[in-house]
Amino acid sequence: MEQFNPGLQTLVTLGNSYVKAFQALAVTSEAYFSAVAKMGEQTLHTLSSRSLGDVLVQISETQRRLTAEMEGVVSICFIYVYMFLILFSLFIPPIYLCLFTICP
User: What local confidence, expressed as pLDDT, does residue 62 receive?
Assistant: First the structure.
């Protein structure tokens, strides 16, 4: 990390924070939609609310699938950005890195 200029270091730090925040969102989302699914399963056993229970279970399953897919996309995107920054810092001559920082 130390070989990156301050702007790139900040970008990586912000990316790490974004991934952690998204992971926390995924955990909270899972808890919420587990509760929705449980309510849906309970209403499946009543005569008057069976269709509502079915809809709640479907919503929960769909949201879980979307969250899992988004977790994968966010992780892959962050890995690609991080790899790009490493390659960028290795192959770009230091004089051009100066464009991304305040140089004397």
Answer: 92
